[in-house]
Amino acid sequence: MNSSCSDILLFASYKWQVSKPSLLKDTTDKFDSGATQKYWLDVQLRWGDYDSHDIERYARAKFLDYTTDNMSIYPSPTGCLIAVDLAYNLHVTHTMQG
Description:
14% of the residues lie in helices and 39% in strands. It has 1 helix and 5 strands, in the order βββαββ. The chain is mainly beta.
């Protein structure tokens, strides 16, 4: 079970088109996965160590943990996880775009 919750929740009056999960730098997004009125943003601050400063793997794993967990308190599978490694000055965003 995850003890985290999203930092920002967005509820829209109109529906947003949604793509499959992707990284921020991906340019091949196709918005064919339906539509949603709920979107969340979560910022993860991390102090990486020398042996494991793979922030991209960390962000993807956290995003999938939060959106596929049945006990999660995230309001919807559509959102954006921003991970920042403070030790190595790296950042990555994993998202299901709306």
